[in-house]
Amino acid sequence: MRRFVIGSARNLIESSRQKYQFERSILSSPYRFLSSSPAADSPSSSSSSSSTMAHPVSLNTINPKVIECEYAVRGEIVTLAQKLQEEIQTKPDAHPFEEILYCNIGNPQSLGQQPITFFREVLALCDHPAILDKSETQGLFSADSIERAWQILDQIPGRATGAYSHSQGIKGLRDTIAAGIEARDGFPADPNDIFLTDGASPAVHMMMQLLIRSEKDGILCPIPQYPLYSASIALHGGTLVPYYLDEATGWGLEVSELKKQLETSRSKGITVRALVVINPGNPTGQVLAEENQKAIVEFCKQEGLVLLADEENVYVPEKKFHSFKKVSRSMGYGEKDIALVSFQSVSKGYYGECGKRGGYMEVTGFGADVREQIYKVASVNLCSNISGQILASLVMSPPKVGDESYESYSAERDGILSSLARRAKTLEDAFSKLEGVTCNKAEGAMYLFPRIDLPEKAIKAAEAAKKAPDAYYCQRLLAATGIVFVPGSGFGQVPGTWHFRCTILPQEEKIPAIVTRLTDFHKSFMDEFRG
Amino acid sequence: MGLKALDYETMNENVKKVQYAVRGELYLRASELQKEGKKIIFTNVGNPQALGQKPLTFPRQVVALCQAPFLLDDPNVGLIFPADAIARAKHYLSLTSGGLGAYSDSRGIPGVRKEVAEFIERRDGYPSDPELIFLTDGASKGVMQILNCIIRGQGDGVLVPVPQYPLYSATISLFGGSLVPYYLEETANWGLDVNNLRESVAQARFKGITVRAMVIINPGNPTGQCLSEANLREILNFCYQENLVLLGDEVYQQNIYQDERPFISSRKVLMDMGPPISKDVQLVSFHTVSKGYWGECGQRGGYFEMTNIPPKTVDEIYKIASISLSPNVPAQIFMGLMVNPLKPGDVSYDQFVRESKGILESLRRRARIMTDGFNSCKNVVCNFTEGKSLLSTGHSKAFVFCDFFSALLLGYHTGAMYSFPQLRLPPKAIEAAKQAGKVPDVFYCLKLLEATGISTVPGSGFGQKEGVFHLRTTILPAEEDMPEIMSSFKKFNDEFMAQYEDNWNRSRM
Questions:
Q1: What start and end residues bound the annotated signal peptide (chain A) (predicted)?
Q2: Among B16, B152, B171, whose Cβ lies nearest the Cβ of A63?
């Protein structure tokens, strides 16, 4: 079954890097998949002699690790989507569709998802506390949002939401978050283990910064994976050690695969320092089984790896989500047994507050000396934004039964989650009906990652067009229907297999149109290329 | 089993090398003491709102409305929010793609970047391109992104002023580059001598370091000086000759204390110089919402503007920005409001002016109390502002001044947030510090903290000439607390000096 050795994995990554672009979900800013090979970046004196009067920051002279994060700012598919959008605006009947349907964007509120009212009420009041005392405020805001804003302000020294906070984040908010983690896991959480960050990305960067000393240091990363990890590893000059998720078992993570990749890379002189696990998966959407998580924890413990657990994509319609902290504690492993970092963000989940850049990491199992170093690195950037910090605490302590806002809050939350589940089901069913397409279930995240078996002729046509076959498919789809998907080649995939990633975020009323257009397109595409 | 991946012994050495004094030993000790219930006066971070400065009302109203856009539909919204705040909230929401909860473009909301470009154009008299302006989560993030792009390894050097703001030394260590110090001249009001620069570059080259960039902090932190146009020309010429990218940290541009020498941006001087220099010298300028009478530190809003950076490099910088998805959106709105403030005739204008004026007046009074206080202490010298014209306030020794009238008229304002007095430590004190395993000014500041609860930053955290010691305080503690703070400082200092002085009779000045 495990046919792929690290060498082929690397070839795959190399070739994807060279050939194909990956659409970064958001921001119309596509990535390329990243090389796992170390940058040839030793600052040789020859390349930097002052006799070459290249500008200090020209492409030839900037940090090669920056260039190594292969990433096209305006990727083909998103660029095409923007172009089509402009054409439609100026000439509505220019194309056989009236609008671009963005299924590439993990940015729910840009697609019309409404924020949770209670959270926003509290944030507004914290932003403008001067109105808390006014009687008119009670007519505009719910009573519990006013009360909560007071509570939060009292946790902030001087009630100053415009002040830099402690570099780990406001202590009172960390207390709230720790209490939320404790309630979720049933095991204690220490507010001093929590570092609030501007979204999850800076937290990932921080850990990579600490772990990676040179290209000899490797980080085990899943394939397919969310490109933040590959980008961050490349930027910090380390080596990505890929491991494959097994599509046949619903993108399962097998420890035998981890072991094999670990040994292979060790034999090449790479010191593997950490394992990245994305649970629920991105782009693959699976939720790991508890038994599987236990085996992963055991593996990290035995091999002395830091477990970097990206646990931000939690939607959990069906399977129950278990944090790695809960799993390791339930195995009897404490601080001394395993080093574990869990990343969280306010951008995901039912709240989808991407623009707030709120997030945190919970850091356990490190010595005090290392913790001090993490704190120091955090302090160089002073602190994360306060609004994001407040929101991170709110999502861990939403209104409770009996609070004035509880009903509206739970109606909004359930409305979003059940709508997402319906959208996921509709799309999943539609994909499964397509010829040559198999689709995983979206168990816990906002993505579907169907596999598509493309006819030989289509692959040839893609080659002729100098595109990855899945990118070719996605481009044709966009041109014909206005639907934007991200080709699987951007995330990495087993050689010879092709996928695309589709978010379940477009508004529900748009889903039927997506299904119809996709189905019609797919049929004609297959008719065109079928053997 | 051997060492774990993140044992202290096995972690990235560059991280360990980072020194970050603003939140270093002193700050940690202060936090401990605070936990023990001791009253601590934090003067270590330029964090005005933590020390009681009230935020300006108007921007807070606008951002609150953007947070809760459903209020805009409420017929009663006008009972609490003025019409111009409502209009502004609608304006900024219309610039976003999904309100405050949606990622923006990785470079920031295009409409806000346009407002920044218009601000720069009004300030400098030269057009600015929004495509070359990136919004960031605070200026520090921008500095880190740019240095990440510049530094390839320890063979790459960055010229940094000493004393300096430790963000630079910390970031350069983190990215494995080499800091090339140049000393500011305390005796010349912390001026910048191009001969010192040449010497620093020559020394670095001798060690095999390629100097690639130069940082100027203008107005200075912690030193508070404002570079003259002639000085900026010299610097730009120097960058031209030496092929350096100039990183202009201009976050205190709205913190000018005297009207004879207003803030002039590096970019304006560069453009004024004309070709070939204006077309050649690469410049990145940084700004923030954290300073000035805004003092909105907690929002983490900033921007940088690039000049003469080739499009391909801009794309690379865009790529790095994209990995972090987008800067936080509320702070982008704050930035928009800062660069596009209220105008006379707007409903909220009078209140806005009243509030900013109140902050500025109070800052000036506090600066006065503090400077006078330091200069009344034994062996403490606060730098003179010789060479700069002082205000009608006469010959104060303060190097911290503000003229809010001219500031308000020009749109620039306030006083630096810092005071950086020199401590003339007796040899015995230096000896005692050595015994305790501390740098002398750290030793002094720790003792000060223990005795008085005043939390300062030792000058060694910023860099200083050998054998010379300083401390940095902000001028931000509440005005009513100021006399007491200064008298407890004086009491501590004079006792400290007396304790270690006995046979040391060197005169103070």
A1: none
A2: B152
Q: Do B313 and A58 touch (CB under 8 A)?
A: yes
For tokens 């509290």, name the residue: A122
CA dist., res. A287 & res. A3, Å (int) = 24
Residue A526 Cα, gap to closest chain B Cα (Å)? 36
Q: How far is A131 from chain B (nearest CA, A)?
A: 7
Instruction: List the domains of chain A with CATH numbers.
Output: 66-111+409-529 (3.90.1150.10), 164-396 (3.40.640.10)
Structure tokens, A22 = 């990956």
Q: How far is CA A529 from CA A515, A522, A525, in A?
A: 21, 11, 6
Residues of B in contact with A53 (CB under 8 A): 243
CB A341 within 8 A of CB A363: yes
Provide the residue-wise pLDDT of chain B in tens; the chain has 509 residues. 455 666 777 667 777 677 665 566 787 788 888 888 888 888 877 788 888 889 999 999 999 999 999 999 999 999 999 999 999 999 999 999 899 999 999 999 999 999 999 999 999 999 999 999 999 999 999 999 999 999 998 899 999 987 777 788 889 988 999 999 998 877 777 778 888 899 999 999 999 999 999 999 888 776 667 788 999 999 999 999 999 999 999 988 876 555 556 789 999 999 999 999 999 999 999 999 988 778 899 999 999 999 999 998 998 888 888 888 899 999 999 999 999 999 999 999 999 999 988 887 888 788 788 888 998 999 998 763 322 222 223 233 222 222 232 232 222 222 367 788 899 999 999 999 999 999 999 999 999 999 999 998 888 877 778 888 998 888 888 888 889 999 999 999 999 999 998 655 554 44
Question: For B243-308, what is the HEC assignment?
Answer: CCEEEEECCCCCCCCCCCCCCCCHHHHHHHHCCCHHHHCCEEEEEECCCCCCCCHHHCCEEEEEEC
What's the Cα-to-Cα distance from B387 to each of B187, B190, B196, B235, B422, rounded to whole Å? Answer: 11, 11, 20, 19, 19
Cα A134 to Cα A131, A141, A242, B81: the distances in Å are 5, 11, 57, 12
Over residues A457-469, the mean pLDDT reads 93
Half-sphere exposure for A261 (CA within 13 Å, toward CB): 30
Put simply, the answer to whether B67 touches A59 (Cβ < 8 Å) is: no
Q: Assign A226 to helix, strand or coil.
A: coil
Q: What is the DSSP letter of A269?
A: T
How big is the A-B interface in CB pairs under 8 Å? Answer: 338
Overall average pLDDT of the A78-99 stretch: 87
Which amino acid type is present at position A295?
A
| Residue B33: half-sphere exposure toward Cβ, Cα within 13 Å | 21
Model pTM score: 0.86
**Facing residue for A385 by CB, picked from B55, B244, B299:** B299
- Contact between chains at A110 and B325 (C-beta distance less than 8 A): no
Burial of B184 (C-beta count, 10 Å sphere; 0-12/13-18/19+): buried
How far out from the chain centre does Cα A106 lie? 8
Q: What is the ipTM of this complex?
A: 0.85
Q: Does B214 touch chain A (CB under 8 A)?
A: no
Residue A38 has pLDDT above 60, yes or no: no
In chain B, residues with a C-beta closer than 8 Å to the C-beta of A388 are: 328
B35 → chain A, closest CA residue:
A171
Closest Cα in chain B, distance from residue A241 (Å): 15
Which of A21, A47, A48 has the most B C-beta neighbours within 10 Å, making it the best mutation to test the interface with B?
A: A48
Integer Cα distance of A181 and A175 in angstroms = 10
pLDDT at site B258: 53
Contacts A61 to B, Cβ<8 Å: 212
Residues 143-162, chain B: which have Cβ within 8 Å of A?
Answer: 144, 148-156
Of B124, B190, B123, B484, nearest to B338 (Cα)?
B123
